[in-house]
């Protein structure tokens, strides 16, 4: 009967009773990395806020803001992952009777696990705090990127089911029915006729959804404006054309802003993924370096003790 005992020259193979994973150093390195990440994100938020100004031509451009954010994400991952990985390598228990290549692999794996745990801590534990810390800067940057056109587009859509006296469309309605003579505002009934204003609002909103104003609607708008403002039919039609051009310009500007926001979001996701991969590499390399230095220091200490 064949024997199932594995042996070489009478010596049976022995499995180590201790695990190759030292969770203590991993957890310590992860906490150090996540704490440094939080500190650096606060610092980056403060620096980012200085780049956004409510005054015209005083803020950094969207490209500059995006590039600086990408660089800062890489720096944060570099520093925090390096610290966490190095501490993981230096604090782990020395492995005895292990080949050098195996030691290098274990140190590298410990650094990677410390980075992974730190990333989870930042996402699930510190996520709300980071969002509160950098939320103001993100909103300010979004305002710089999109401008007032976003508000105009959103207001026109939101008012599709409301009357014409409120929201972004009200400006264009006011522009249509602005009297040629300001004294007409005091005339009886000059502030009334909400029906005409509501009709104009519905025409503008429907036309914006359809992408164009029909000839009949444009003619009817001209007649409404002429009746309400005292302008001639030709001048009323010219005013309608001018306001419709403003509406179209606002729509295009809002679409450009939305496209810019979409591209910025995609770029941020790609840069975030790249920075995380860099962080994983740095943490692994730093743990291998820290583990090697720890073993070298202990070997030097034993050598000194044996000579004395």
Short description:
The chain has 308 residues and is an all-alpha fold. The chain has helices at residues 23-49, 62-91, 100-124, 127-146, 149-158, 169-176, 194-210, 215-229, 233-307, and strands at 7-8, 11-12.
Question: What does the secondary structure layout of this molecule look like, with pairings?
Answer:
Layout: E1 7-8, E2 11-12, H1 23-49, H2 62-91, H3 100-124, H4 127-146, H5 149-158, H6 169-176, H7 194-210, H8 215-229, H9 233-307
Antiparallel strand pairs: 1-2
Helix pairs in contact: 1-2, 1-3, 1-4, 2-3, 2-9, 3-9, 5-9, 6-7, 8-9
Query: Which range best describes the helical content: under 10%, 10-25%, 25-40%, 40-55%, 55-70% or over 70%?
Result: over 70%
Low-confidence stretches: 1-13, 144-166
Number of strands: 2
* Sheet of most strands: 2 strands, antiparallel
Measured distance between first and last alpha carbons: 57 Å
Strand order of the largest sheet: 1-2
Count of runs of 4 or more consecutive helical residues: 9
Secondary-structure content class: mainly alpha
Q: How is this structure best described in words?
A:
By secondary structure, this protein is mostly helical. Helices cover 74% and strands 1% of the residues. Strand 1 and strand 2 form a beta hairpin. The N terminus is likely disordered.
Which features does this protein show?
mainly alpha; two-stranded antiparallel sheet; 9 helices; 2 strands; 74% helix
